[in-house]
Amino acid sequence: MSSMNxxxxxxxxxxxxxxxxxxxxxxxxxxxxxxxxxxxxVGDIDIPxxxxxxxxxxxxxxxxxxRDIASLLLVGSQNSLxxxxxxxxxxxxxxxxxxxxASAKRGWIEEVVMRAADFTFAFxxxxxxxxxxxxxxxxxxxxxxxxxxxxxxxFARITRGAANSVWTRDYTLAARAAGKxxxxxxxxxxxxxxxxxxxxxxxxxxxxxxxxxxxxxYLGLGTQPPQPSWGRMLNEAQSQMFQAPMLAVYxxxxxxxxxxxxxxxxxxxxxxxxPRLSRTR
Length: 281
Description:
Low-confidence stretches: none
CATH topology: MetI-like fold
CATH architecture: Orthogonal Bundle
CATH superfamily: MetI-like
Strand content: under 5%
Helix content: over 70%
Number of helices: 10
């Protein structure tokens, strides 16, 4: 119990972690709240009140179709979280086992896994989305699949590199000398000791996934109408830049704050989970 209290006090003294966690908490609360309530239904079109300025009725004004910007931002946060969770989950679910396999077996198996990762890196999320769109058409599933595929080699490489260093530690060598199988050592010693690295990387990839989803939606390859998306809001704001520049500012700030929060939280977690990297503040 005392160790938990000590860890909690350390976390509260870490400015990056506190600031990042607050931003991420705000993002999660916005997404959860929008499932039950939003100022206006996101599908409501009110042409007479299009491009209205901020007011008590419309906190951030309305867009070119008279839709409430605050409602679009709130509901749009659902997509960002959904894509982030599933895409990172795909990367963890497939990349971590491959990285552990490569590190445990070494030899030709490691070479095959790493060369496959190199090949996958040749198809970034945007290119993968274009390929998938040509076959299945644009949509949220295409975005999730493309970003998830790109995350697999990222986690495979991170896992393999971190695991290789653990395999050289004394306790791992002692476990091998005691006759434990490589799989037993992997699950009992290697994976627990690289978990902190994977958690930090997951926050980084989550931020990248939000950016990638926004970019794909901006290009028309991601979330499709009528479902709101921060990236598509930026695309729709282009034609109104001189009439209503704030239409681009609001979703842009939302994306920036979400990505910044995740990066700050990841930076804080890196310091808190690895005592060697902790800094005196």
